[in-house]
Amino acid sequence: MLLIFARAQSHVPLKILSIEDGTVLKDFNHLLHRNKKVDFIEQFNEKLLVKQENENLQILDVQNAEVKEVGRTEFMTPSAFIFLYENQLFLTFRNQTVSVWNFRGELVTSFEDHELWHSDCNTNNIYITSNQGLIISFCKGDSNNEQVSGKAGSINISNIWTGKCVAKINSSNATLDEDKKQTRIQNQMVVDALEEITSLYFDEERNEIYTGNNHGLVHVWSN
Q1: What stretches of the chain show up as alpha helix (H) in DSSP?
Q2: Sorted alphabetically, which SUPFAM superfamilies does this protein's record hold (predicted)?
Q3: Region of residue 132 (phi > 0: left; psi between -120 and 50: alpha; otherwise: beta)
Q4: 27 CB neighbour count, 10 Å cutoff
Q5: Domain spans of the chain?
Q6: In angstroms, rounded to a whole number, what is the distance separating the alpha carbons of residues 197 and 45?
Q7: Which CATH superfamily is domain 78-223 in?
Q8: pLDDT at res. 63
Q9: How far apart are CA 39 and CA 46, in angstroms?
Q10: Which fold has domain 1-75?
Q11: Is 187 helix (H, G, I), strand (E, B) or coil?
Q12: Which residues on adjacent β-strands are paired with residue 135?
């Protein structure tokens, strides 16, 4: 566990504790650029990610004090992180885009068709599979489809390693499990179900996706 103390002018005091018994494993000061705010300090096992405003990303190995830097034009401050502990990678979310990085400061994956719906990265609408191979998100829909309202998006499933979109649920390919419904009514109900999704969950055992939307409705998407 990382403890971050109030910064001094030129450094920030940090402690890394054992979760099991509270033992202090590391106690040190990390040097900072004066008069520049700290965008974030994040810990991942023995790695520490530190970013200040308009400065390079620093990836510090707290065991040997080795530091790698990623240029500020290559790595801009994200709005959220998701750490992939199984694969020793981390996801960053910025301006509705997702990127995958390793702890050498290298960009591993950019996604070809995974523009997130929410600009502020609401991670309630994102699910990472247990093997950390797929990301499932509520994404921007097909803007060329005149039948789809501006509030309807799509559920995109992408490979984290390749960035390829492997599946997509949208108003063009989803149907209701109600045979008696007319096609036009079915299409509109599917569009409604893809509007303003506020939460998303994937049941890996049943191979079903559950979504909840702003209207208080829950939908199950299944093969």
Answers
A1: 183-193
A2: Tricorn protease domain 2
A3: left
A4: 11
A5: 1-75, 78-223
A6: 33
A7: YVTN repeat-like/Quinoprotein amine dehydrogenase (2.130.10.10)
A8: 87
A9: 20
A10: Thrombin, subunit H (2.40.10)
A11: helix
A12: 128, 158
Question: What pLDDT shows up at residue 172?
Answer: 81
Average pLDDT over residues 113-135: 89
The torsion defined by the Cα of 12, 18, 24 and 27, in degrees rounded to 10, comes to: -30
Q: What distance in Å separates the CA atoms of residue 81 and residue 193, rounded to the nearest whole number? A: 28
- What average pLDDT does range 121-150 have in this prediction? 80
What is the average pLDDT value for the chain, to the nearest integer?
88
Residue 120, Cβ density class (10 Å: 0-12 exposed, 13-18 middle, ≥19 buried):
exposed
> Measuring CA to CA, which residue among 106, 134, 165, 196 is closest to residue 173?
165
**Cα–Cα distance for residue pair 120/95, rounded to 1 Å:** 7
Residue whose token pair is 């801009």: 76
For tokens 């109600």, name the residue: 178
pLDDT tens digits for range 147-188: 545 678 999 999 999 999 999 999 887 766 655 455 555 567
Q: What is the pLDDT of residue 118?
A: 83
Question: What's the confidence (pLDDT) of residue 191?
Answer: 85
Residues 6+ apart with CB under 8 A from 110: 97, 99, 100, 163
